[in-house]
Amino acid sequence: MVLVGTRNIAPLLEQAPMMDGFDAEPWACERVEILQVTFEIDDGDRESLVPKALHPTIPPAAIFSVSRYPDSPAGPFLLAQVKVSCRAAALPRGFLLRAYATTQEACEALGRNWGFACARGDVRLQRYHDRIVGSVQAHDGREILRVSIEAGATFGWTRYVGIDGRSIGVDRFGASAPAEVIYEKLGLVP
User: Fold this and answer.
1) Distance of CA 145 to CAs 111, 162, 181, Å?
2) 95 forms bridges with which residues in the sheet?
3) pLDDT tens per residue across span 122-169
4) DSSP 3-state assignment of 54?
């Protein structure tokens, strides 16, 4: 098993976060909604995504998150991040592969204040009763990822997330109780 990543980071330096100082003023953002999903990926994919200085996690995993900021100093925006799980020594990390924001103002503010490189994209966080779908599409129209979380079975969600999307739910029978009890038994945090 490879104990470190194999990715050459030289091409990534152009988009890497650069910080001259830590004097940025913090943002207080209320009513933020976040959908974060972690799912296993192939070992080979992970090794090619993680730089040599970082160690893999077992099992290899990708992290997809979509956040809605209804009120921020940069105005309302959505932010999507795609990360691969890794370790720096024993500390778990998420190596940021790409980030997308819905407004140019947000991209510029995140870069200016914290060196956070993100591109403009079509980011969505949609609710359907007890279901949530998060998706991100690059500015050139290329879909990056689409994920759904369903409080029940995932059957039929392919029409919403596409053949390459991810659906997370409960695909088994036998649990019947109030939602709070079921969430606790399944290890879910509503």
Assistant:
1) 23, 9, 31
2) 84
3) 888 877 766 677 777 777 777 666 776 666 666 666 666 666 666 667
4) coil
Q: What is the pLDDT of residues 27-50, one digit of tens each?
A: 888 899 888 888 787 777 777 777
> Is the CB of residue 76 less than 8 Å from the CB of residue 96?
no
56 prior amide bond cis, ω within 30: no
Distance CA 132, CA 34 (A): 10
41 and 88 Cβ atoms separated by less than 8 Å: no
Q: Which tokens hold the place of 94?
A: 């998420």
Classify 146 as helix, strand or coil.
Answer: strand
**Closest CA relative to residue 64, chosen from 156, 165, 170, 188:** 165
Is pLDDT at 4 greater than 60 in this prediction? no
Q: State the Cα–Cα distance between residues 149 and 56, nearest whole angstrom.
A: 26
